[in-house]
Structure to design on (721 residues):
């Protein structure tokens, strides 16, 4: 009885919230926004170094957000591998010897690598870029791992950690280099904008793939004993 | 000069996060201590620069708002940057000695610590709604990672709960941001305020503010959304608990306060302001009462945080449709409360960590006899308690004095009762710890003695919390500095 009442109350709360939200969105959609950001964006596209507005926003106009977001990804990767059980990374039980998967993999892996490369390149003038390419690259890694391809760099060693932070580090160095040149943090020199964005996107692709792959690989939890503070 | 300082402030924590990720714990400690020196110097330099020349906007990447992201570098922001530098470096030094360097997963402590620091700075300086969201994410995820470090079942349970609460809060905030963006077409807070100055308030914008404040209240653990806080703050290692209680919960409150002060008058209403104040008061009473009844030492301190956070939310009723001077008093009182609670609570958690290290138990009744062996840590705990009880001349007293005046000045006498009850209850739970530690027990005479440096750090923080009351005028004067409204330097 009480459970039913609780469910009913929850449903009522959700419905009324959705109603209020829908009403608000309806009202807001009816009024024009006072600041026309898309127009401002298109006026400044020529100075952004790329042709696609999303890439321009992500890697130039609001690059600070992207820098910090990559930091968030690195944090997620660190938190993931901090809980990894080293042994599980080489656990033979997690590998399959399915010949169909093996055969498919020989077709898929090169194709997916090419797709990742294309997505990265496409980001300059159409939807695409580091995040999408990194996701495809990570999926390739997951496929390879499930198929039993040895990937030693995924052991929690220096190489893995270097891979996690490579993209972030390059981005950060570019950001601070402009300060040394006497400009604001993250301001690219106008003539170098395009190559810098390309370099950042490429290393970001690698690191994003690495973070996602590390999270996939390190899923099992550490069960080594570390007594809670003061519990002994 | 300020350009260099700003770049240093943004660059150092991120760079040190990378550096410490590539080392092990022991080397990470050396590297971190170097980084702390740099970061403290930069923060101090920026504070001095702003207190001399006033605040400014700093456009990142050379783009101005609304196209790019602008940081708002004003007196309040640099005060909190400096506070973060003080508390985080104290916790960093403490953690270097306190945390066991032999556990392989502890190497990840330093990078998470530095990411947390960079997230805090991002929030204090943020002037862009979405950028603030990213800063919050940096803080939440690194805080969750720090709580979960090692991945023991109990810690995982607490951190997962923390993660879910933090994510829900972030999503509510993000929904509010999306509504604001849809309505005003800009993400810059200053842009929205500027437009509202000479236009009528458009319909449907109250919900955005309500969503953002609710999400942030969940992240700040305002009663009744506080249930995730005590397990997470209680189970983390003591330096982590200190960081979480002193700084992390303040970040989400800071955003809520900034939004309320800028947008509360046009978008909010009286009932909402009183409701938030009421919830804050309930947090003060209920949190203190629960702190009094906990059997674990760190849970006492964690519930005390729930109570102290409650005071902060009195900002909402005390600044809504009141006179300029009363609002000013309330803002100053809350700022002092944030600073003094950060210092006192960090001191308290670090001292509690030392006591636990010494007695080998987290239970309050295991403290029997510890007063003879660890008087120094116990004294720091008590000094921090003095500030929480808001006895003169502590920073806590100065804060509550200002809040008292603001309550009476605006005719909202009912908040005075909350201030008095909260003070009495906090005295009760601090004295309870003292009583346990002064009891004599002939059986347990074996106490481990933690190193001197562990004992000095909470003492310094506690003395700063006490001393804050005497220099509150100087601290507050930086906030009132003129702000250069247009463009970056």
């Amino acid at each position: 009885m009480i459970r039913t009442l609780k469910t009913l109350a929850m449903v009522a709360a959700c419905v009324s919230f959705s109603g209020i939200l829908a009403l608000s969105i309806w009202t807001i959609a009816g009024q024009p926004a006072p600041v026309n950001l898309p127009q401002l964006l298109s006026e400044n596209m020529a100075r952004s170094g790329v042709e696609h507005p999303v890439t321009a926003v992500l890697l130039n106009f609001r690059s600070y957000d992207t820098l910090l977001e990559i930091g968030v990804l690195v944090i997620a990767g660190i938190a993931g591998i901090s809980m990894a059980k080293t042994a599980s990374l080489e656990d033979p039980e997690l590998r399959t010897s399915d010949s169909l998967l093996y055969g498919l993999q020989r077709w898929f892996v090169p194709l997916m690598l090419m797709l990742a490369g294309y997505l990265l390149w496409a980001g300059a003038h159409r939807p695409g870029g580091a995040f999408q390419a990194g996701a495809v690259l990570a999926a390739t890694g997951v496929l390879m791992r499930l198929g039993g391809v040895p990937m030693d760099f995924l052991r929690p060693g220096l190489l893995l950690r270097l891979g996690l932070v490579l993209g972030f580090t390059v981005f950060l160095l570019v950001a601070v280099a402009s300060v040394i040149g006497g400009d604001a943090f993250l301001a690219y020199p106008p003539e170098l904008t395009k190559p810098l964005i390309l370099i950042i996107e490429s290393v970001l692709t690698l690191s994003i793939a690495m973070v996602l792959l590390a999270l996939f690989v390190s899923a099992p939890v550490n069960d080594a004993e570390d007594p809670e503070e003061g519990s002994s | 000069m300020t350009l260099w300082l700003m770049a240093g402030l943004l660059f150092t924590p991120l760079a040190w996060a990378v550096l410490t990720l590539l080392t092990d714990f022991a080397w990470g400690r050396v590297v971190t201590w170097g980084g702390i020196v740099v970061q403290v110097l930069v923060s101090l330099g920026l504070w001095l620069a702003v207190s001399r020349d006033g605040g400014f906007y700093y456009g990142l990447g050379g783009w101005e708002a609304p196209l790019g992201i602008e940081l708002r570098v004003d007196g309040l922001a640099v005060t909190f940057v400096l506070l973060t530098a003080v508390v985080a470096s104290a916790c960093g030094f403490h953690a270097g000695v306190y945390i066991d360097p032999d556990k392989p997963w502890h190497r990840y402590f330093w990078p998470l610590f530095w990411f947390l620091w960079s997230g805090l700075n991002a929030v204090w300086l943020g002037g862009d709604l979405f950028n603030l969201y990213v800063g919050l994410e940096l803080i939440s995820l690194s805080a969750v990672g720090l709580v979960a470090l090692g991945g023991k079942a109990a810690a995982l349970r607490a951190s997962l709960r923390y993660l879910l609460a933090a994510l829900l809060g972030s999503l509510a905030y993000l929904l509010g941001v999306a509504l604001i963006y849809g309505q005003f077409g800009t993400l810059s807070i200053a842009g929205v305020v500027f437009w509202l100055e000479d236009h009528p308030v458009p319909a449907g914008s109250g919900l955005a503010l309500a969503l953002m404040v609710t999400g942030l209240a969940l992240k700040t653990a305002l009663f009744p959304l506080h249930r995730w806080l005590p397990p997470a703050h209680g189970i983390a290692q003591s330096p982590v608990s200190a960081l979480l209680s002193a700084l992390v919960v303040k970040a989400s409150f800071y955003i809520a306060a900034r939004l309320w002060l800028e947008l509360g008058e046009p978008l909010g209403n009286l009932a909402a302001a009183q409701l938030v104040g009421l919830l804050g008061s309930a947090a003060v009473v209920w949190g203190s009462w629960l702190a009094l009844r906990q059997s674990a030492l760190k849970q006492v301190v964690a519930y005390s945080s729930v109570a102290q956070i409650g005071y902060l939310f009195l900002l909402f009723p005390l600044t809504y449709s009141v006179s300029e001077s009363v609002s000013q008093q309330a803002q100053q009182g809350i700022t002092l409360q944030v600073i003094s609670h950060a210092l006192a609570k960090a001191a308290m958690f670090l001292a509690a960590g030392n006591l636990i290290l010494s007695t080998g138990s987290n239970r309050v009744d295991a403290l029997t006899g510890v007063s003879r062996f660890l008087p120094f840590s116990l004294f720091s705990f008590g000094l921090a308690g003095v500030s929480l009880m808001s006895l003169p001349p502590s920073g806590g007293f100065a804060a509550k004095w200002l809040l008292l005046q603001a309550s009476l000045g605006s005719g909202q006498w009912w908040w005075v009762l909350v201030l008095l009850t909260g003070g009495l209850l906090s005295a009760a739970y601090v004295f309870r710890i003292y009583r346990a530690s002064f009891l004599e027990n002939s059986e347990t005479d074996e106490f481990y003695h933690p190193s001197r440096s562990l004992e000095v750090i909470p003492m310094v923080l506690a003395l700063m919390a006490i001393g804050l009351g005497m220099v509150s005028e100087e601290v507050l004067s930086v906030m009132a500095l003129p702000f250069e409204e247009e463009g970056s330097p």
About this structure: The radius of gyration of chain A is 23 Å.
